[in-house]
């Protein structure tokens, strides 16, 4: 599932369509996608893992789910298109294996932008307040809670917890204040590291524990759980250097 930084890259790549009219619409979505034909794209925004195309009076929300993808000015062979938007000069945005739905009215009424770890208005104090309100939550689940850390996905979760030396089954309420602060800080800082590495096509080379077998800090075998916490997502962690706080 694409995480917040990947959506930022998609947003940057599609800014070329802002201010342009949609001339063609096609796809197998069950939504009334034809309502976008003839409309002008007013803005392209992202919130967490949501890609948002804004028109006058409504917006299209795209969630790429687990296997969604996109193509700009090209098409995937033998893959059904969920949505294709055509523009002048033969340019087009094609979306595959994703969820699309419409949001009516002003996007600011639907989204708390300060919860997005990639946003300029990200509010770490608010994140800490929300965390303190759920002391029994596992830190692994807290990081994946989009109301807390919009944009954080499983890769970021595993890497952040290793970076701050916290076991994924630690509970939020048991974390010392310093560790709670590190959790909030690194959720954002690692996300921007992720973005930089993704731009340079070296993201996987910089993974420390995700999909790895050995801890780079102490050389011990990493623990692997196919599903951990309420989110039931894969977890890679080191029992030696990641402390369990309960």
From TrEMBL:
Gene3D superfamilies assigned to the protein according to its UniProt record, in alphabetical order: 1.10.8.50, MutM-like, N-terminal
Domain Formamidopyrimidine-DNA glycosylase catalytic: 2-90
One Pfam family it belongs to: H2TH
PROSITE patterns for the chain: FPG_CAT, ZF_FPG_2
Reactions this protein catalyses: Hydrolysis of DNA containing ring-opened 7-methylguanine residues, releasing 2,6-diamino-4-hydroxy-5-(N-methyl)formamidopyrimidine
Keyword entries, A-Z: DNA damage, DNA repair, DNA-binding, Glycosidase, Hydrolase, Lyase, Metal-binding, Multifunctional enzyme, Zinc, Zinc-finger
Key word Thylakoid present: no
FPG-type domain: residues covered: 208-243
Xref: InterPro entries: FPG_cat, FPG_N, H2TH_FPG, Ribosomal_uS13-like_H2TH, Znf_DNA_glyclase/AP_lyase
Family according to the record: Belongs to the FPG family.
Protein's UniProt name: DNA-formamidopyrimidine glycosylase family protein
């Amino acid at each position: 599932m694409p995480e917040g930084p990947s959506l930022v890259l998609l947003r940057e790549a599609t800014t070329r369509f802002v201010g342009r009219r949609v001339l063609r619409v096609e796809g197998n979505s069950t939504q009334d996608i034809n309502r976008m034909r003839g409309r002008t794209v007013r803005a392209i925004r992202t919130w967490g893992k949501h890609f948002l195309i804004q028109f006058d009076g409504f917006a299209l929300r795209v969630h790429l789910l687990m296997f969604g993808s996109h193509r700009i000015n090209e098409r995937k062979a033998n893959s059904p298109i969920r949505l294709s938007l055509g523009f002048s000069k033969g340019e087009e945005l094609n979306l595959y294996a994703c969820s699309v739905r419409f949001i009516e009215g002003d996007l600011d009424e639907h989204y708390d932008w300060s919860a997005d770890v990639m946003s300029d208005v990200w509010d770490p104090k608010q994140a800490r307040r929300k965390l303190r309100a759920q002391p029994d939550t596992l830190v692994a689940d807290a990081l994946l809670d989009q109301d807390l850390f919009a944009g954080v996905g499983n890769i970021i979760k595993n890497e952040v917890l290793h970076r701050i030396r916290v076991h994924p089954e630690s509970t939020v309420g048991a974390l010392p204040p310093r560790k709670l602060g590190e959790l909030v800080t690194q959720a954002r800082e690692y996300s921007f590291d992720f973005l930089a590495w993704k731009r340079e096509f070296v993201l996987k080379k910089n993974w420390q524990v995700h999909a790895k077998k050995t801890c780079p800090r102490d050389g011990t075998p990493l623990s692997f759980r196919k599903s951990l916490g309420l989110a039931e997502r894969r977890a890679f962690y080191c029992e030696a250097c990641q402390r369990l706080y309960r």
